[in-house]
């Protein structure tokens, strides 16, 4: 089987303000990884927008923890763990085609169908599926199948 995605550690997914929403589970994991109390981690590295807590971005648009790769990889939020298997890329072939210009780790040769199969399997296996748009990242709200 051809792998549909293999991270190239290019950092493109670490750039762009607003997308790294952290759930309670994410905040706990990241704080533990950083060796900080959760409240201190939130004060230092996050901001609240529309009721959701998200990681701050630097002035250059990259995640505050990006430094030639993810500086907190073992503690990274679920939305980071899920990339590129986001809802839009799974349900819309055109989105999948377009994101390939942005993410060199997506293997076009695998095809969209295989990307969907492997993506849903990965999301399920890693426990990344989100159900609550009020507190979780919308990109992880996927279908039940």
Helix content: 25-40%
Biggest sheet record: 2 strands, antiparallel
Uncertain spans, ≥5 residues at pLDDT below 50? none
Q: Give the amount of beta strand, in percent.
A: 5-15%
Radius of gyration, taken over Cα atoms and rounded to an integer in Å: 15 Å
Distance between the termini: 21 Å
Mean pLDDT: 88
Record field, number of beta strands: 2
Strands of the largest sheet, in order across it? 1-2
User: What does the overall shape look like?
Assistant: globular
Give the SSE string: HHEEHHHH
Q: Which class best fits the helix and strand makeup?
A: mainly alpha
State the assembly state of the protein chains: single chain
Question: Helical element count?
Answer: 6
Structural overview:
The protein has 145 residues and is mainly α. It contains six helices and two strands, in the order H-H-E-E-H-H-H-H. A hairpin with a 2-residue loop joins strand 1 and strand 2.
At a glance:
With 145 residues, the protein is mainly alpha-helical.
Features of this protein?
145 residues; mainly alpha; 6% strand
Structural topology:
Elements: H1 24-34, H2 38-45, E1 46-49, E2 52-55, H3 78-82, H4 87-91, H5 93-99, H6 111-125
Antiparallel strand pairs: 1-2
Helix pairs in contact: 1-2
């Amino acid at each position: 089987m051809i792998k549909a995605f293999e991270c190239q550690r290019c950092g493109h997914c670490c750039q762009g303000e607003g997308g790294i929403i952290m759930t309670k589970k994410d905040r706990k994991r990241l704080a533990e990884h950083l060796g900080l109390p959760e409240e201190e981690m939130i004060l230092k590295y996050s901001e609240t927008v529309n009721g959701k807590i998200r990681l701050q971005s630097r002035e250059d648009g990259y995640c505050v923890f990006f430094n030639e790769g993810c500086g907190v990889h073992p503690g990274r939020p679920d939305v980071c763990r899920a990339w590129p298997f986001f809802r839009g890329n799974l349900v819309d072939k055109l989105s999948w085609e377009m994101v390939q210009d942005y993410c060199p780790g997506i293997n076009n040769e695998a095809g969209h169908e295989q990307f969907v199969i492997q993506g849903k399997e990965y999301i399920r296996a890693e426990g990344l599926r989100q159900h609550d748009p009020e507190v979780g990242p919308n990109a992880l709200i996927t279908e039940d199948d």
